[in-house]
Amino acid sequence: MNAAALKHLSAVDPVMARLIREVGPCRLAHEPWRSPFQSLVQAVAHQQLNGTAAETILTRFKKLFPKRRFPKPEDLAKVTDEQIRACGFSFAKIAALRDIAAKTLDGTIPSSREIEKLEDEAIIERLTGARGVGRWTVEMLLMFQLGRKDVLPVDDFGVRTGFRVAYKKRDMPKPKALLAFGKKWRPHASTAAWYLWQAANAARKKK
């Protein structure tokens, strides 16, 4: 994330300016080498689990496909639900993985090349058509795979917690209220979200 983002956020919001001073440069990085399919499979693995447990499941899952670094959508047809279940995926998540694979193969979920050409909201609309994929999951893809600069995941617990802490609010902000407040951060909302995550992390460490 560039200096223009930090300059804009510091100019429009004194609390954000303080956060930037305290935390230092933004280290929000994206991973453009991942396909949308891989990003969504990894996101499903992480749903309702801590990071360590999710990564253990993903490691087992990848071992089902020893010839690949990460399976392709068509590879899922070669393994049974029982094999995927043995990796640690629930049956609900297995159904989501199979739907994500099917929708990648039929073009509903775009290829890496195609997704780069789409606007954020068009990507959200396309990808949330897949089972087990909500808006938050796609927003994480926008930020961490595609490096989109103006994403504000207002349903994210960490973002909302960071806002409550940084702005010294008694209650958690409602997503709609946070969306309205965040208009001042645009077009650099992704950077603002990253700083709110840092505020939430710092508060958790203090406890």
Describe the structure.
This protein is mainly alpha-helical and 207 residues long. The protein folds into two domains: 83 residues, Endonuclease Iii, domain 2 (Orthogonal Bundle), CATH 1.10.1670; 109 residues, Hypothetical protein, domain 2 (Endonuclease III, domain 1, Orthogonal Bundle). Helices cover 59% and strands 0% of the residues. The chain has twelve helices and no strands. Helix 3 packs antiparallel against helix 6, helix 3 crosses helix 9 and helix 10 packs across helix 12. The longest helix is centred in the last third of the chain and has 18 residues. It is elongated and about 55 Å long. The chain starts with a helix and ends with a helix. 35% of the residues are buried.
